[in-house]
Amino acid sequence: MNKHFIRPPFFEVGPKAYFCGQQALELARIAEEASRETEVAVIYTPQLTDLHLIAENTSGLYLCAQHMDPLYPGRGQGSILPEAVKAAGAKCVMLNHAERPVALDALARTIGRAREVDLISIICASSCAQAVACAALHPDIIVVEPSELIGTGVASDQTLVEASTRSVKNVSPEIQVLQGAGIASAEDVYRVIYAGADATGSSSAICKAADPGKMLREMLAAAMQAYRDRTCA
């Protein structure tokens, strides 16, 4: 069993650069409460500069850094040190997002550094083929999200969800799969979890919602319902 296994279904909330400071903390507190209510674990991915603030004021989230670099303590002006990410309170790190791509060799080294400092490695892939290539690096979680769908409100179709999840599990059953990009409603959440994903997530749909807390609660409830329906069928 992967020691970094997160009980499914789980959900990633990514404020990206929509929120920072107190706004990011407010959403984190809402996410923490919603996670307790629904029993769906939440990965929360704020700005790097907000990790410590949120870690000091919440306790029920998997805090995630948006990026880090594969360097060791020493020289590296402007780079993000893995030990600093861990010290700030993060439990996870996200790598190779479409908005922050990483070359494959650097990705392999950064996954290794994540293991060394005991961070859950979450790797983004924009296609089924890239997901398989990333799975060969043995991260803890792979996020499958076609880059052309990010922020569009149009989610991946069921064929891609099923095929990419199956392909990753064929490489390593221990890798958990999060299906993302374009998740805009509770219905989208239900569909991808029911189709076999361990997790899903949303950024713009939550951050731009008139009531982000309501949207998040609906999405988490849908994730749990879909997982129960899938596993009890």
From TrEMBL:
<dbReference type="GO" id="GO:0004807">
    <property type="term" value="F:triose-phosphate isomerase activity"/>
</dbReference>
<dbReference type="InterPro" id="IPR035990">
    <property type="entry name" value="TIM_sf"/>
</dbReference>
<dbReference type="InterPro" id="IPR000652">
    <property type="entry name" value="Triosephosphate_isomerase"/>
</dbReference>
<dbReference type="Pfam" id="PF00121">
    <property type="entry name" value="TIM"/>
</dbReference>
<protein>
    <submittedName>
        <fullName>Triose-phosphate isomerase</fullName>
        <ecNumber>5.3.1.1</ecNumber>
    </submittedName>
</protein>
<keyword id="KW-0413">Isomerase</keyword>
<dbReference type="InterPro" id="IPR013785">
    <property type="entry name" value="Aldolase_TIM"/>
</dbReference>
